[in-house]
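Thread amino acids onto this structure.
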């Protein structure tokens, strides 16, 4: 089942349950996917990797908004953003544990023979492609940076 079809059926369920937060999150996902489908130069199909990138972007936006609201002491809005990010994350692939992530990055560093920070770009390129959708780019970057210093 395609992601957009899963989202559409989830929207119907959320409408029946009158779950406003979930409905708003699902509509945001569907809107982003439809925009990607109809973009100039698009053939109307979205690759799974592009769907994952779109979902990650939506989650990142929600988390950043929640942080801003917390700094402004607007906790009710921060809670809404946090709950929406959790709803969107349900449609992402399972996230890899920090221990496994650390192990994989160490293997990549050994595999390409990275010596220091000058090789960070090489390591990040390989790690990002291998771990696409399974780990946050910021987390990957922090681990790579700590290992190469």
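Threaded sequence (149 positions):
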């Amino acid at each position: 089942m395609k992601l957009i079809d899963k989202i559409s059926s989830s929207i119907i369920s959320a409408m029946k349950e009158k779950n406003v937060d979930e409905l708003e999150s699902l509509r945001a996902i569907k809107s982003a996917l439809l925009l990607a489908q109809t973009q100039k130069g698009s053939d109307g199909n979205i690759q799974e990797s592009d769907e994952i990138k779109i979902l990650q972007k939506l989650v990142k936006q929600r988390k950043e908004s929640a942080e801003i609201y917390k700094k402004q002491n607007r906790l009710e809005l921060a809670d809404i953003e946090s709950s929406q990010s959790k709803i969107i994350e349900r449609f992402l692939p399972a996230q890899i544990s920090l221990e496994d992530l650390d192990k994989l990055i160490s293997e990549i560093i050994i595999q390409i023979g990275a010596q220091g920070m000058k090789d960070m770009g090489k390591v990040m390129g390989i790690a990002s492609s291998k771990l696409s959708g399974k780990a946050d780019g910021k987390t990957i970057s922090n681990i790579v940076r700590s290992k190469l210093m």
